[in-house]
Design a protein that fits this description.
alpha+beta, 22 strands, five-stranded antiparallel beta sheet, D-amino Acid Aminotransferase, Chain A, domain 1, 4 domains, 422 residues, Dna Ligase, domain 1, five-stranded parallel beta sheet, Rossmann fold
Length: 422
């Protein structure tokens, strides 16, 4: 029987999920809410307040969803998965209690310490004076992190004491992140390459995706303020599959076991952001959903049937093995609006979308909408991600940039060094 899948969210990650489901053998009915201009070409879109668990559940019932994939963090933290499960609807995503792994960096640190997961020294503070004491203890560079959700922009890696104090003041006294910054985690600075490792977890079983790397700063050579991510690549040539399996045993399995021990079992996607320091791997953060933009580089490589994998995971079963993938590397380049990550400009008409797609690239929409003239225009900070596979990382990035260069709008921003370090 033909299945119906509902993907909740409206960004590039959700577009990649929709495309992966559309390639499945079962030819599912695909709904996405709220979606965007590009997703509307690949799925049936519906309006939705993703932060309202009752609205999410009602929509799933209305469209007759056999399972739901919760894309962004907001519906997870507000308990959409709990509401769906209470209504008997299978869902890929953890409970609201388990989603605290992403919703609170202080809680994530607590879990890491209890589970014996290697991570940086840190202190959770609510006043600037306590934060300054932690800065002086750890030295610089030091990371200043808003405890709650801040759309990927709540982290400042301060290179000087003054910069660190400014970041503390912005969060705790000027409230630039709202309630998300009422608690700040001050974390010792670490050095080394970063790795994103995602796995779908259910019970004691863990299905690992290949490693990926996300490039967060807005500027080339990792300069400027952090963003939600300006590009990604998978795999990481210097991290073998055996190394990735060891990281799963070191990080994911102990965390899942600790959550179960506390009576809040974790079921869904557990994303570990790690830094490979000279002293070994250290976990920087957890997300409780597919990463963005890592998903845009991972799903084009997926050889497993997405409908089977995601549907089974929503029902609480996953294979305890790495997911099947295509060997070809994939590079995804994010195209951002003028003014991002500060105040992105909206309404700029986008050209070249068809030309880029004609090269064979996956053009994933994130911040787009259709204007009164029927044009696809910018409607957010990160607007598109252009992904391409190749026989090598070099070929993949060359093809991705060639396709991205066919797209244009006024003030478009793009880093030119995604995956250049590999």
């Amino acid at each position: 029987m033909r299945q119906t899948a509902l993907v909740v969210g409206g960004g590039g990650r959700e577009h990649a999920l929709v495309r992966a489901l559309a390639r499945a053998d079962g030819n599912p009915n695909i709904f996405c809410a709220p979606g965007n201009a590009g997703i509307a070409l690949d799925a049936q879109v519906r309006a939705l307040d993703v932060t309202d668990p009752r609205a999410v559940t009602a929509l799933a019932q209305t469209v007759g969803a056999d399972f739901v994939v919760l894309g962004p963090e907001a519906p997870l933290v507000t308990g959409a998965a709990d509401a769906l499960r209470a209504a008997g609807i299978p869902v890929l995503g953890p409970s609201g209690a388990a989603a605290r792994l992403e919703g609170s960096k202080a809680f994530a640190k607590e879990i890491m310490l209890a589970a014996g997961v290697p991570t940086a020294r840190a202190a959770s503070v609510t006043h600037v004076a306590a934060g300054i004491a932690a800065i002086d203890e750890f030295g610089v560079p030091v990371a200043i992190k808003a405890d709650g959700l801040a759309a990927g922009k709540g982290v400042v890696v301060a290179q000087t004491r003054a910069e660190a104090i400014d970041a503390l003041t912005n969060a705790l006294e000027l409230h630039v992140f709202g309630e998300a910054g009422d608690i700040v985690v001050v974390e010792e600075g670490l050095t080394g390459p970063e790795v994103s490792l995602l796995a779908v977890c259910a019970g004691e079983d863990v299905a690992r995706f290949p490693a990926a790397r996300d490039y967060k700063p807005i500027g080339e050579r990792n300069t400027g303020p952090n963003t939600g991510g300006m590009g990604s690549v998978s795999p990481i040539p210097d991290l073998s599959n055996r190394d990735a399996d060891r990281l799963i045993d070191l990080v994911h399995r102990p965390v899942v076991a600790e959550m179960a021990r506390r009576g809040t079992p974790f079921s869904g996607v557990l994303y570990a952001g790690l830094m490979m320091t000279p002293d070994g791997p250290r976990v920087l953060e957890f997300n409780v959903r597919f990463g963005d933009p890592e998903t845009q580089a991972l799903l084009p490589r997926l050889a497993d049937d997405a409908l089977e994998l995601l549907g089974a995971a929503a029902r609480g079963t996953v294979p305890d093995r790495p997911v099947a993938i295509h060997a070809d590397p994939c590079v995804a380049v994010v195209l951002a609006a003028a003014g991002y990550p500060g105040s992105p400009r909206q309404g700029d008409a986008i050209s070249g979308l068809d030309a880029a797609a004609a090269t064979g690239a996956e053009v994933y929409h994130a911040g787009t909408c259709t204007d009164a003239l029927g044009r696809i225009v910018t409607a957010g900070g990160r607007v598109l991600a252009v992904a391409q596979r190749g026989t090598t990382v070099i070929e993949a990035r060359t093809k991705a940039y060639a396709a991205a260069d066919l797209i244009a709008w006024e003030g478009m921003q793009m880093r030119r060094d995604i995956a250049l370090d590999l």
